[in-house]
Structure formats: C-alpha cells, structure tokens
Amino acid sequence: MIELKNCDIGYDSVLLKGVSLTIEPGKCYGIVGKSGVGKSTLLNFISGIEASNARINLFNGSITSVSDIRAAVVFQNGDQLFPWQTVLKNIMLSHYKDTKKEPKFQAVEKAKKLLDEVELTGYGDRFPHELSGGMKQRAAMARALYSSPDILILDEPLSSLDEETRSRLRRLIKKVIEKHRCTVIMVTHQFEDAVYLTDTILAVKEDGHIKELKLDNKEDSCVSINKIRDHLYEKADTT
User: Fold this and answer.
1) Is residue 95 within 8 Å of 107, Cβ to Cβ?
2) HEC readout, the chain
3) Among the listed residues 51, 79, 35, 42, the one whose alpha carbon sits nearest the alpha carbon of residue 185
4) What angle do CA 239, 158, 70 make, to 5 degrees?
5) In the chain, what are the domains?
6) How far apart are CA 138 and CA 230, in angstroms?
7) Taking the model in full, what pTM does it have?
8) Residues 209, 38: contact at Cβ < 8 Å?
9) Taking CA 194 as the corner, what is the angle to CA 148 and CA 116, rounded to the nearest 5 degrees?
C-alpha cells in the first residue's frame, strides 16, 4: 500500500495541492485530466521517479523514501527499447544490471515466457526496428514485467496506435495485469481505456486538486462507454 497524506507536489512551484490518496496493492489506477494539469507529475511522484514528501507504506512495512519503490515504466511508444539490442536482450535488461543475477539460462527462459505472454513468440532474435508500433509496446510491457516491479507504470501506453492495434493491446494489457496481480498506475487521455483497464480514476483538475472515482460494478453496467465518460467528466468537475 502507498499512502500520500496532504502532499504538495510540483517542481519549481506547487502544481498539485494537498494530495491525499491511497494506492492499494494489486489495484489498477487511471490518472486522467486535461493536458498540462499535472498527470505525469503525479505519476512520477507516486512511482518514485521523482522524490516527494509522501509517506510510503509498502507490503513489507513502512518506509519514508519513494526511491525504495521498485517501479517499471512503459512509455507512450516503443522507442524506449534499445535499437542495438535484440528484443530478448531488451527484455532481460534488468538481469544484466542485477549484481545477484540468476543463471543466464533461467533468465532467458523467463524472458521467453514473457514473450509468449505478450504474443511475441519467436521474436526474441529480432531488433526493435523490425517490429510494428504495437509489437514494440508489447515488448516494452514484457521488459517492465521482467523485473517483478512493485508498481507497473503505464504512461499513455495506447497512444499513437491505430484503433485495431489499440484495442488488441488494451485486451492484452488487461490479461497481463490480471495474471501478474501487480499494482498498476496508468496515465491516459482516453476514458475508454481507463474504464476498461482500471479500478479507480484519479481525475486531476485544473485547480490542482484530485477527484477519486471508484469504478464499482462496471462490468455489470448497462451504461455505454460514452455515458460513463460523461459521468466521469461531470464527477471530475465537482468539488
């Protein structure tokens, strides 16, 4: 569990005011809001990419430094893959950095299983330039999961993709999340993606405050995605 209590978050000036929220283990959170309101800033502070004054409670006890959180990030395009490395070696990146690394044959098998999970079986010897945009995102997802992170960060993972690829990748992300049961925090401009993939919406408002919206019983709802989006916009604008 991660708790932020009355935190002012920003860089040169305060962008988000009095942030208090709880990130529960194994849950999926979607950060939404207009451009420039602080979505990525909130993401960076929660995940430990940026230092903050938050008090952090993790699964194994209470700590006070967000730098102790093991976070893995999937950005909005697959360009975070190293072009000079094969797909398999890209996935195994954390293995090469680990001073207490497991035997290489075990690491390779682990990476290949992740390739299977993200539907890239047989692509381990390819290079990133040989993959489509959607395939690069799937490879980036496998690399993020390889390190068994406390938090999986998805920063606009479905942007810049055509509708068919986006729909396929969205279903794949949901399947992978459910299998690994990791805590997920996703930034998105698309309410459809947030509703489909997450349990809770963190709507960042223009005044720097955050509205938390639980998505209870969404699978049983007869309301269309468009009506859900309209409801969330209305809720997000309510103080």
Assistant:
1) yes
2) CEEEEEEEEECCCEEEEEEEEEECCCCEEEEECCCCCCHHHHHHHHHCCCCCCCCEEECCEEECCHHHCCEEEECCCHHHCCCCCCHHHHHCHHHHHCCCCCCHHHHHHHHHHHHHHCCCCCCCCCCHHHCCHHHHHHHHHHHHHHCCCCEEEEECCCCCCCHHHHHHHHHHHHHHHHHHCCEEEEECCCHHHHHHHCCEEEEECCCCCEEEEECCCHHHCCCCHHHHHHHHHHHHCCC
3) 42
4) 80
5) 2-70+149-236 (3.40.50.300), 84-148 (no CATH)
6) 30
7) 0.78
8) no
9) 40
Instruction: At 130, list the tokens.
Output: 């040989």
- Of 96, 72, 73, 82, residue with least CA distance to 128: 82
Locate tokens 């995605």: which residue? 225
- d(Cα 78, Cα 94) in Å, to the nearest integer? 17
What's at 18, amino acid-wise? Answer: G
Question: What confidence category does residue 55 fall into, taking pLDDT thresholds of 50, 70 and 90?
Answer: very low
pLDDT, one tens digit per residue, over 100-127 is 667 888 889 999 999 999 999 999 999 9
